[in-house]
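Weekly modeling sync, notes
Attendees: AB, CL, MP (scribe)

Item 1: holo prediction request
CL wants a bound-state model with zinc ion before deciding which constructs to order. AB pointed out that an apo prediction alone won't tell us much about the pocket. Agreed to run with the ligand included and paste results into these notes for async review.

Input as submitted:
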Amino acid sequence: MDIFDSASALEIKQTAMALTNHFKNQPKQTQLQSAEVCNECGSDIPKARQDAVKGCQFCTHCQALADKGKR
Ligand SMILES: [Zn+2]
């Protein structure tokens, strides 16, 4: 390995570390708090759904409508 190879290897390492730190500071989807009631219609969101879909804000019905609207 010559000096240029080791320099670029170091650069790759530093870039990887910077990216790792960057993503460490991002809130993860799994850490989001699920809503207990739907933000749209106010229906209770079942606990099972809150656990299954971390950070969900809508009941299954409104979520389906929202998903449809996006497409
Ligand atoms: Zn709803």
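Recorded for review: The longest helix spans residues 3-24.
Action items: CL to compare against the apo run; MP to circulate these notes.
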